[in-house]
Design goal:
about 270 residues; alpha/beta; 5-stranded parallel beta sheet; about 50% helix
């Protein structure tokens, strides 16, 4: 298994779309299962009860039919979870191995927007380890905030968003490698500037050969086709482009930009943003 982690509006869906276009990789659409499973494993000590509850949680989730359920039916999920070690890493490793096999790939992965925000429970539940690579996608927080404004998700300067961006991303960068998970930081700006270079790096992390079809528009657009009707994902069905990099300069005045920069200065410096 592998994870794609990142703040919403940071390019994680684009990265997942390209990875799912690789013949050896399978990423179900956003499952939102990892975090609830982490809480369950942390709270339930009895393995048999835990596996039963985990199966129910996965197969009765609102997202099941459009994500894991596209690869495994409820009976198959029950069989996989029932035989897995009662650890978060064990359950997810076996579950996504079954997803990958059903999808004709070698490795399964997860990209869900809540995973970054709930790192502390993922760490507490001991998700990470040498068998679980992490692709950490970061985008300049000023462009993240501009995107939030475009979608009507925020107005003005929601200070909490800037602070969460900084705290959550710095926590992942600092803690995941310490758990011995293979870790790769990928900046959205670098992905759109040179997709082949960045996806070659990701392929190396995941132990698969580079495939040019990953960034081929025709093949890429076939992934997560249901997203076409969701406004927030519209850009993933356009050619990969850096046109939206630095849009914050047109969205915010100088005083607002200075305020956002001050709020997230440590993170901006850590991830190479001026």
């Amino acid at each position: 298994m592998f994870l794609v982690l990142g703040q919403p509006r940071s390019g994680t869906t684009l990265v997942a779309q390209c990875l799912n276009a690789h013949p050896d990789l399978v990423l179900p659409d956003e499952t939102d299962a990892v975090v609830p499973l982490a809480f369950l494993v942390d709270r339930i000590e009895e393995p048999d009860l835990g596996r039963e509850l985990a199966t129910t949680l996965i197969t009765h989730s609102r997202r099941f039919a459009d994500s894991i359920g596209e690869y495994l039916d409820a009976e198959r999920v029950a069989a996989v979870v029932g035989a897995a070690p009662w650890t978060l890493n064990g359950i997810l490793t076996d579950l996504y191995a079954a997803v990958a096999e059903a999808g004709g790939g070698r490795r399964g992965g997860d990209k869900s927007p809540n995973d970054l925000k709930f790192q502390r429970i993922l760490l507490t539940a001991r998700l990470y380890g040498p068998n679980l690579p992490v692709v950490h996608v970061v985008r300049d927080v000023r462009d993240v905030m501009a995107s939030f404004q475009d979608l009507g998700w925020a107005q003005g300067v929601p200070e909490g968003l800037a602070r969460f961006w900084e705290a959550n991303n710095l926590l992942v960068q600092a803690s995941v490698p310490r758990q011995e998970s293979p870790y790769l930081l990928v900046r959205y700006e670098d992905v759109v500037a040179d997709p082949e270079r960045e996806f070659r790096r990701i392929c190396e992390l995941l132990g698969v050969a580079w495939d040019p079809g990953m960034i081929d528009d025709e093949r890429r657009y076939q992934q997560f086709a249901g997203h076409r009707e969701i406004g927030q994902h519209a850009q993933t069905f356009q050619p990969i482009s850096g046109a939206r990099v630095g849009r914050y300069a047109d969205e915010f005045d100088a005083e607002t930009l200075a305020h956002i920069t001050d709020l997230a200065r440590e993170g901006l410096d850590a991830f190479g943003y001026e």
